Amino acid sequence: MEYKKRVICVWDDNGRQYLEKLKANAFDTEIVDCEASLFLNHPEKFLPDIEHIIAAVGRDLILQLVRLRDHWDFTLAFLPNSSQRTLIKMMDLSTDLDHNIDIALRDDAKAIDLISCNGALVELKATIGTIPLIGLSGHAHTPWEFLKDIRLGLAQFFKMHLQQFEIETANGKKIKTAASGVFVFEHGRQSTLSRMMQYDHSRRDNQVMLIIVSPFSVVEYMRFLFAVIISPGKGEKIPDAIGVIKSREITVRASSSKEVVLDERSSVGLPVTFKIMDQKLKVNAGPKFWEENSKQSSDKETIKIDNLPDEKEMKRYLHSHIPFFSYASEDRFKELFLSLRKDAETNMHYIVLMLLSTLLATIGLFSNSSAVVIGAMLLAPLMAPIVSFAMGMLRADERMIEYSLMKITVGIGLALLASAGVALLLPELALTDEMRARINPNLLDMGIAVFSGMAAAYSKSFKEIAQSLAGVAIAVALVPPLSVAGIGLGQGNMDVFYGAFLLFFTNLVGISLAATLTFQILGFSSVVKSRKSMLIVSALLIATVFPLYFSYRKIIESYHLEKFIQQSRFLVNDKYVIIKEVSVVDRDDVTLLDLTLSVREALDRHDLEMLKQRLQEQVEEKLFIRAEVEYIL
């Protein structure tokens, strides 16, 4: 590695501290130093005799040094202080002074692009329009300043609107589109902006990169921000709502905005032309900087605007605030809508699978086999028409709603008839644990239904995760409770029928409502169009919650009763009774206690009656006790 023979260090009050160590460098480099204001006032005293400047100054003074390259030919290196985090990251430097001195004194400076905006230098970025939270200033030195940047960015969210932009490239290509804002940036790879477009960005490619931000909704923009933060620069797919144009020169006109903001410090009136400056700046930087900016000059233009609104969508959103939820046109999601309409239609495959899954579930329930019941869940086709019904409600598609409800009704009827038929053929078989698990639904089951509906709608919306629907089918269990309800009908046990069908109905209503709202959040409609359907489903949801709440309250009461009994020792007629195990079962207005008692002396009838009386004081319902006694010898 070769090093410079003679350099000048330009310093300010913060950079003065580096002079002693810089002059004592191990590379035999002669160091001339000058205070920054003196140097900038009289650069001719030093240039062109010295061709390499080391800047130990702040941001504003660095910019003034860069502007000197219009009149003088020199190379530039940096000795940043610890507060200049942006510069350190951008140039692959560090907080280690020896490391920075080594890089600053090397004789290996290379040229990088500089962008001008109507002749003014773009240091980091130039913004036209409203682009919340993208490319924060980067100058926040305290947490309070950073929070202020975040607060100002969030305040812009609900001010966003799409305006018309006319963009022309160096080759004469004209693009007319709608966007909330556009920006040009020259920044290090550590920034959000650079990482977002990591696949095709270099500070040495002789190209201006213009990013066009055109979200259809606040939610879509938030999803874009989330994707940028969580997985920036992964793959070569441009994020949704984003367009990219690269050319050596780009001219921008806007219908609403009147100026472009440069580095949040100055502004230039529109229209503006961004272009690569003819005078290149040669700098010293760390090895990673050159690896990431290895791409050389290219005259080939890049225009990627598939994610931007078409002419019809432009008219819908132009000059109005973008909605919280976006409107998804038939054209943009045609494949999904066709799939859901097909799912809403009843066919022979559906009937056969419904019968087979119900028969399988019923036999699994009678045999008390959870594995067989899970297999029936996977086979059951009921989830598809419920998701179609949710989309039909959202978009007021009467045909989809009608066909979905018909398909769901047919499925319910087939399931009840098939399981009731099996129960009639097997009248001597009693209820199993698998059946009892499905006849006492509570609010927790509603929670499962809601989250399953969200997962089902989300999985259906993206082909790459459609296989997750199998997991949703297992989680929500639609056919097994229907089968238990049918068994209740076949055996004439209406309590079983009511409990099991309430669980199924809970799942049906919860999935429908949650899937509808999930589709809305994903942008398939800006509003719920079929308000009547949604009101009906919401009313059913509220009506369903009441019995679920009382059931849930009984579970909580039973839990507290168990904990109280297990932690208590009872003295009955001078005999200690320890309750080792307790199980509470609620049936109508009766509470059944299964107890395991540990005693040292035998308990007679009078002792047991007194123990029952003590326990009865803890519950309002009539108490029945079944006890097993263990003797401690």
List keywords for this structure.
alpha+beta; 4 domains; Rossmann fold; about 625 residues; Tumour Suppressor Smad4; 7-stranded antiparallel sheet; 6-stranded mixed sheet; single chain
Describe what this molecule looks like in 3D.
Helix 1 links the parallel strand 1 (6-11) and strand 2. 38% of the residues are buried. The protein has four domains: 6-108, Probable inorganic polyphosphate/atp-NAD kinase, domain 1 (Rossmann fold, 3-Layer(aba) Sandwich); 115-280 and 288-317, Tumour Suppressor Smad4 (Sandwich), CATH 2.60.200.40; 334-554, no CATH class; 568-631. With 633 residues, it is an alpha+beta fold. The strands form four sheets. The chain has a seven-stranded antiparallel β-sheet with strand order 16-15-8-11-12-13-19, with no helix packed on it. Helix content is 44%, strand content 20%.
Summarize the structure in short.
With 633 residues, this protein is α+β, with helices and mostly antiparallel strands.
Helix content: 40-55%
Uncertain residue ranges = 188-192
Tally of separate domains:
4
Structural class: alpha+beta
- Could you give the order of strands across the largest sheet? 16-15-8-11-12-13-19
Mean pLDDT across residues: 82
What is the makeup of the main sheet? 7 strands, antiparallel
Instruction: Tell me the number of strands.
Output: 23
In whole angstroms, how far apart are the ends?
Answer: 89 Å
Taking Cα atoms only, what radius of gyration do you get, to the nearest Å? 36 Å
Beta-strand percentage range? 15-25%
Tally of contiguous helical segments: 22
Query: In one word, what is the shape?
Result: elongated
